[in-house]
Amino acid sequence: MVVRGAGPRGGWRGGAPRPLGIDFRLYDPAPDASGGRVAPLVVGAFDDRRALERFAADVDVVTFDWENVPADSLRALRGRAAVRPPARALAVSQDRLAEKRIFRRLGIPTAPFAAVNSLAGLRRAVARVGLPGVLKTRRLGYDGKGQAWLHRRADIGAAWGALGGRSLIYEARVPFQRELSLLSVRGADGAIVHYPLAENRHEQGILRLTSAPYRDRALQAAAESHLEALLARLRYVGVLGVEFFEAEGRLVANETAARVHNSGHWTIEGSVTSQFENHVRALSGLPLGGTAPRGHAAMVNFIGRLPAAADVLAVPGAHLHDYEKSPRPGRKVGHATLVATSARARDREARRLLELGRREAGELTQ
Amino acid sequence: MVVRGAGPRGGWRGGAPRPLGIDFRLYDPAPDASGGRVAPLVVGAFDDRRALERFAADVDVVTFDWENVPADSLRALRGRAAVRPPARALAVSQDRLAEKRIFRRLGIPTAPFAAVNSLAGLRRAVARVGLPGVLKTRRLGYDGKGQAWLHRRADIGAAWGALGGRSLIYEARVPFQRELSLLSVRGADGAIVHYPLAENRHEQGILRLTSAPYRDRALQAAAESHLEALLARLRYVGVLGVEFFEAEGRLVANETAARVHNSGHWTIEGSVTSQFENHVRALSGLPLGGTAPRGHAAMVNFIGRLPAAADVLAVPGAHLHDYEKSPRPGRKVGHATLVATSARARDREARRLLELGRREAGELTQ
């Protein structure tokens, strides 16, 4: 059922479909993909149409758990199995320009932006969009990679030198108060449920901390209406995540994730139904589960190296999710979630978890 | 790490140790044990000392997930690996007489009882303990099997005819208002946490419904003190369950479970930390997690055949746990849990789940 499911997003590796009685198998180019421990693994290249078609012939639904699966490979499977979320949603999320354009078409506010394909084009974009701004590759950027900031016109040459030759997008900087994300789920029957907004804190381009629920009735309503427009337009089935900036009291859409999302890991312990279970329910045509928060939740990513399990679990309300990856600077190797009865207690314990994570990351890079 | 972990208790099959970064392997006589899907499976007989010793040599901790693993096989592994919970606790839970005797030694109230090894012994036991009462095999009884009720002296012959020749125990009937169970967890460092009392409803000897928390401060305190005595006496590590009758406002201990327990499945979604996670934390020497309930939870066992997933998941707050077993009258094939914001809503939705289960069981036996 899953094309490439060996990643750290836990739902497949954790066997999320199994309690619902749903059998699944995985397709991955790596023969040692860790998902192979929990489900039959078919090994094949993402551009091996024949192998993919054989895989799809055996399943009812094909999905993906990695944003860089080629959308064309999924398109080729339509007719053999239901592809959920749709290949188009994946294609949009893979291309920052397509993403911004669909936001604009649906009336969802974005930062001013322009496509850039040449040095002259970058000059025009900077003139039109303004400074400061950020030049990004349209594809394959993540965790702050593939980006160059421009603060003055003199930065144009260096930015082009770093990224030029690829398809790019130039975006104005958004002076934001905070980063928020909304995860919504659309069932195969079109029913939609929304999780509460979550607040995200990034450091060096990597998500460090998510806190949820972030309570703001007006922003929640605005975010839900944006997601509903996207879900309908894309004929989406499954969990869709959108990252927003909150700038001067309104939401500015930044990017989409056509899958379960790191900023939704708090739902594992912090919500009535986890994003993983709701994703599987949606893909399988089952009724969606409740999305209400249970208390005040936080999720802390561990980057580089995992703290000792005993230290993490000594924090009240904490749960550990170890991705079983070898340590490497900048790599997400696990996360902890916690649920507390007040936002204040949640923030206090989250600081302890952040501190544990920082100590490990610091020792790793010394 | 686990001797026989292929059962429906979900923790091992669901990969409970994995998020904590703990590797595990399974030992089972059945080459097709379903646990083999999630962890390496070593196939061997429970009395194959050599195979068990080879298995134990590779692990730090050995545990069990089935009450009929021979306690002697575990005893033989001491010195090679830590056996948690201890083999003695398993031996006690396997023998209704040993269980009642340890209750009595620790001052934990039980029904009047007597050992029975002959027809004459049964006559003496009935004279001493009184009528009505129940004759039970000391070993291998579960879900109401291996039991015969005696209402008058004339029933003695039939009861002996049904069960005689094995080691037996005769117990007076306890006129109880309700059945309650307490699950407690003792860490490797001796720290103890208790879940709230749960109320259980059996039908034809099989657990149908658990509701938690059952709030009664005096009974909770009494149950906790009983469990603390047992945990200390057995030098227990892991989750221990005790089933009680509530009779005239006090607790009467009925039996123990030296493992995670069916009446604790509500903790998967209904408590801060599930019994599975806390069991793994205890076995692994990690700090224990919180046991507070999150709302009002219920667990409904599905017996015989599973209702359609779509029907179960249409019940607000419901989660499905499918054991992927073929239908058979009287067999536990899965369960649903639900969490609601009030006891009243919980009871209403639990009735819907019970009704779904009854309809399936009814069709199966027609």
Strand-residue fraction of chain A? 25-35%
Q: Main beta sheet of chain A, described?
A: 9 strands, antiparallel
Rg over C-alpha atoms of chain A, rounded to the nearest angstrom: 20 Å
| Oligomeric state of shown chains | homodimer
Task: Tell me briefly what this model is.
The structure is a homodimer of 366-residue chains. Chain A is an alpha+beta fold.
Overall description:
2 copies of one chain form a homodimer. With 366 residues, the first copy, chain A, is α+β, with helices and mostly antiparallel strands. Helix content of chain A is 30%, strand content 27%. Chain A is built from 11 helices and 18 strands. Chain A has helices spanning 49-57, 71-75, 87-94, 96-105, 119-129, 156-163, 217-233, 267-270, 275-283, 309-313, 343-365; strands spanning 2-3, 26-28, 41-43, 61-64, 82-83, 113-116, 133-137, 147-150, 168-172, 178-186, 192-194, 198-203, 206-212, 238-247, 250-257, 296-303, 318-322, 332-340. In chain A, the strands form 3 sheets. In chain A, strands 10, 11, 12, 13, 14, 15, 16, 17 and 18 form a 9-stranded antiparallel β-sheet that branches. A 5-stranded parallel β-sheet of chain A has the order 3-2-1-4-5, covered by helices on one side. In chain A, strands 6-9-7-8 form a 4-stranded antiparallel β-sheet, sandwiched between helices. At the A-B interface, helix 10 and strand 17 of A face helix 10 and strand 17 of B.
